[in-house]
Design goal:
Aspartate Aminotransferase, domain 1, Aspartate Aminotransferase, domain 2, 2 domains, four-stranded mixed sheet, 15 strands, globular, binds pyridoxal-5'-phosphate, Aminotrans_3, PyrdxlP-dep_Trfase, Aspartate aminotransferase family protein, transaminase activity, transferase
Length: 404
């Protein structure tokens, strides 16, 4: 806070893959804000849909039996797209809220099914699940574990080793673990695609131990991995899917949890079942839902899921041309429109601000990229075209060299 108090970088306008600052300079948005502006900036269709909804019914809560047309249409549409049978959707505001929702649903599910000892939530090293209560406790990025004491009954395992997960379930004991949380591709923790077969093995292990498998697709959904919920390409059926960001391309805050019919049953099947006492003032917000519906129309109408399938390879190929730079030790990507350049550990050891300095230097050369703990992250809008990649590579190479 102290470092930026007199040096804000003020953005005033966005247009497709471009952003403009208050001085009129133009930047390529190679991160789609925080991994979320999947349809690009300045889409009038979304602004118009939100304005029209606001003139009709701007806001109302959805507790009890109260609903509104955009919330109903959105949840029906998402349930039909979701890769789980009998999907039910719980809407909240942001990814961290949705993680808290999924964590509480998991524990409450087991209370209602007579296994109330199942309270432990397991996550992976390098994972990021937001900064609310449960997400902070689940964080696999040590720097994000702040403001302890944390929510109890949480443990973190290696990010790439199914055997370590199973060993942890066994160590915790039968009937103790409620849920395992995993991002299909770890995002903020460094862009780490899953090892081949990892998610499939995890599904089997969770089944064997009676543990709910919660997929955190906050980054991976809505086209980022070329499909709707960021998990379909792996052929795995989760028990819950957490989504946010790309559902509205970030135009308005909206997130939610998709539940498998098995998880929904104890809350839905018995008309006398106690309510799930959880929710937010803006759950099912009509204007946010209208933004999501217009965003889904664009993703479908512009064929952006298909475009993402090609762009993932184009982005990866472009980033690989930077592998020869002395500051770069690894290029990650190729699973979704996500990439990272890992920076030289000895240089990072000497200067932990290296990613921020390179990102700043790339910005001065016209591209916004994401500084992470030890790497630079890339997650452009799905509307990015191949010709933009030359500008990106030039700006990043120039930034790396300037810092070197
Ligand atoms: C995988 C993942 N989960 C959860 C979150 C938290 O989302 P929000 O920032 O909307 O609370 C993020 C945010 O980047 C994320 O990347």
């Amino acid at each position: 806070m102290g470092a930026v108090r007199r040096a804000e970088f003020v953005l005033t306008r966005g247009d497709d893959v471009w952003l403009f600052d208050e001085g009129g300079s133009r930047y390529l948005d190679a991160t789609a804000s925080l991994w979320c502006v999947n349809v690009g900036h300045g889409r009038r269709e979304i602004a118009d849909a939100v304005a029209a909804q606001m003139r009709e019914l701007a806001t109302y809560q959805t507790f009890g039996d109260i609903a509104n047309p955009p919330a109903l249409e959105l949840t029906r549409r998402l349930a039909a797209l979701a890769p789980v049978p009998g999907a039910k959707i719980f809407l909240v505001n942001g990814g961290g809220d949705a993680i808290d929702t999924a964590a509480k649903l998991a524990r409450e599910y087991f209370v209602r099914t007579g296994e109330s000892e199942r309270t432990v939530l397991v996550s992976r090293e390098h994972s990021y699940h937001g900064t609310q209560g449960f997400g902070t406790a689940l964080a696999g990025m040590p720097g994000n574990r702040i403001a302890a004491p944390f929510v109890p009954d949480v443990s973190v395992v290696a990010h790439d080793d199914p055997a370590a997960l199973e060993a942890e379930f066994e160590r915790l004991g039968p009937g103790r673990v409620a849920a395992f949380f995993a991002e299909p591709v770890i995002g903020a923790g460094g862009v780490l695609p899953p090892p081949p077969g990892y998610l499939e093995r995890v599904r089997e292990i969770c089944d064997r131990h009676g543990v709910l498998f919660v997929v955190d697709s906050v980054i991976c959904g809505f086209g980022r991995l070329g499909d709707w919920f960021g998990i379909e390409r792996f052929g795995v059926v989760p028990d819950m899917i957490v989504f946010a960001k790309g559902v509205t391309s970030g135009y308005l805050p909206l997130s939610g949890v998709v539940t498998h019919e098995r998880v929904a049953a104890p809350f839905w099947d018995d008309p006398a079942a106690a309510p799930f006492r959880h929710g937010a003032t803006y759950s099912g917000h009509p204007a946010a839902c209208a933004a999501a519906l217009a965003n889904l129309d664009i993703l479908e109408g512009d064929g952006l899921l298909k475009r993402a399938e090609d762009l993932e390879g184009e982005l990866h190929a472009a980033l690989r041309t930077l592998a020869d730079h002395p500051l770069v030790t690894e290029v990650r990507g190729g699973t979704g429109v996500l990439g990272a350049l890992e920076l030289a550990p000895e240089r990072l050891g000497a200067d932990p601000t290296l990613p921020a300095r390179v990102a700043r230097a790339a910005r001065e050369r016209g591209a916004l990229i994401r500084p992470m703990t030890s790497a630079l992250g890339f997650s452009p809008p799905l509307t990015l075209r191949e010709e933009h990649l030359d500008l990106l590579v030039d700006a990043v190479r120039g930034g790396l060299s300037a810092v070197l």
